[in-house]
Design brief:
By secondary structure, the protein is α/β, with parallel strands linked by helices. It has 3 domains: about 1-130, Rossmann fold; about 140-190; about 200-355, SH3 type barrels, CATH 2.30.30.110. Helices cover about 40% and strands about 25% of the residues. It is built from 13 helices and 15 strands. α9 (about 270-275) runs antiparallel to α10.
Length: about 375
């Protein structure tokens, strides 16, 4: 794939040297198209009119030194954060002022480390896949909006203009965009054959990080290194206007909140037997499969591994009662179970506690009387 990289450095000699070594170079299977700017102010303007996959920034204007507070490279990073997402490599003579910014997405490199080390940093960012995911998603949103407005809104405007307010029309359009990101479209967008139309990819379970600050049904929480899922319905958390003793107040319907504890799958016998057996037999694999597919019992619900949680099982016998919304704030909200998995979990929970036992009938007696 073609990768567009912009270097911003007021030393034209450095710019020309780096360009001669990087332009048209193959890095991590991608062809590099290299541009540079020697004016820091021009770089901010370029961000708005060009789509770069990676930015390489000098930090200082002029000679780098501890006493030089003119660091436009930091200003450009802040502008990038405000306007778009582009991974950044600081390539500078003095790294101390930006060492605290170092991460997999914002990398910090001394110029004395040379261009070969710079290539390694570029390779690391490209191998993360983030620049390409961003590019594909940006392209998809633009194309989806173009097609929606010209292919649907334009020919149907006589009907749509009857919607009297912009909020309703906007809501209709945004919901249409969200709904268009089906599994098939995501598979096409990412170009990954490992995404199957017939089974669920583990990441389909979650919204991470959650989009709402308020607590909701299906939220995944963590406290004291234990994970929980909220079982209380979202409607009970909503602040409502109430009158009490002549005063207008806002109250939540919920008094106590139900959580279910997540147990790491490594603690279950089915997993232990599978891992401890050099060549697991059919029964061992079937038992583990039943646990994962939630077909063993309504008591259990499987949560697949994600960046914030290991493979885990919700155990509906491990229920925790939290004494109020303020107490819930002591838990760290990590993610949320997405639809329809949250509803499926709810169905398991209801079935487990709504079951009615059926006494065993004396079959021998019945058969003898036939």
């Amino acid at each position: 794939m073609d990768v567009r990289i912009l270097l911003v450095d007021d030393d034209v000699t450095i710019c020309e040297q780096v360009k001669s070594l990087l332009n048209n170079e193959n890095i991590a299977g991608n062809t590099i198209y290299f541009e540079y700017l020697t004016n820091f102010d021009d770089a901010v303007k370029a961000l708005g009119s060009n789509e770069y996959d990676l930015i390489i920034l000098d930090l200082f204007r002029g000679r780098p030194s501890e006493g030089n507070s003119d660091r436009p490279g930091e200003m450009i990073l802040e502008e990038i954060k405000k306007s778009c997402f582009i991974p950044v490599i600081f390539f500078t003579g003095l790294v101390k002022p930006v060492e605290h910014l170092h991460s997999d997405i914002v990398r910090v490199l001394r110029k004395t480390d040379g261009v070969e080390k710079l290539k390694l940093e570029i390779s690391g960012i490209l191998e993360s896949g983030l620049p390409f995911i961003k590019r594909k998603l940006n392209g998809y949103v633009k194309e989806a909006m173009r097609g929606y407005f010209w292919d649907f809104v334009h020919p149907n405007w006589k009907t749509l203009k009857n919607i009297k307010d912009n909020v309703s029309l906007g809501y209709l359009i945004v919901r249409r965009l969200a709904n268009s990101l089906s599994k098939e479209k995501i598979k096409e967008l990412l170009g990954d054959s490992r995404i199957s139309s017939e089974v669920i990819h583990p990441m389909e379970f979650y919204i991470f990080p959650p989009t709402q600050e308020e607590f909701e049904f299906g939220d995944i929480l963590k406290k004291d290194n234990i994970f929980y899922v909220v079982l209380t319905p979202t409607c009970d958390f909503i602040l409502r206007d109430v009158k009490r003793a002549g005063q207008e107040l806002k109250e939540r319907k919920v008094e106590k909140i139900l959580l279910c504890e997540c147990v790491p799958i490594s603690q279950f016998d089915e997993y232990k037997k599978f891992k401890l057996t050099k060549e697991p037999g059919k029964d061992t694999i079937e038992n583990l499969t039943k646990l994962i597919k939630c077909s063993r019992s309504d008591r259990y619900f499987f949560l697949p591994v994600a960046p914030f949680i290991e493979n885990s099982i919700l155990d509906f016998q491990k229920i925790v009662v939290v004494a109020g919304y303020d107490e819930l704030k002591k838990y760290n909200k990590l993610a949320k179970l997405d639809d329809p998995f949250a509803q499926s979990m709810q169905a398991f929970f209801i079935r487990y506690y709504n079951r009615v036992g059926h006494p065993d009938i004396d079959v021998d007696y019945v058969i003898k009387s036939l």
